[in-house]
Amino acid sequence: MKENKPVQRIMWDYEEEVKIPDKFKMYLWEYKDKAPLEILIIRILKYGDFEEIREIYNLYPEQVYKISNKYPDMKRGVRFWIRRWKNSSN
Hints:
Layout: E1 17-19, E2 34-36, H1 37-47, H2 50-59, H3 61-70, H4 76-89
Antiparallel strand pairs: 1-2
């Protein structure tokens, strides 16, 4: 029997709406021109390729670093490169 446990939701840190770069519009099909920053970053980290992840990191380095470590389902390789980029910039 399955127990009904309360769902643990991760609260957003970055709710502000930002303009979606044309390159990333395919990842945010439900938004027109602006999307919440956290959703933009999450989608690029999950579905983007290496160059797209690097590009979003260059736009929002601190936010990308924090979000990549915040979500448990983020790929290890993504975390590895983001940590490496952060350490090389310090």
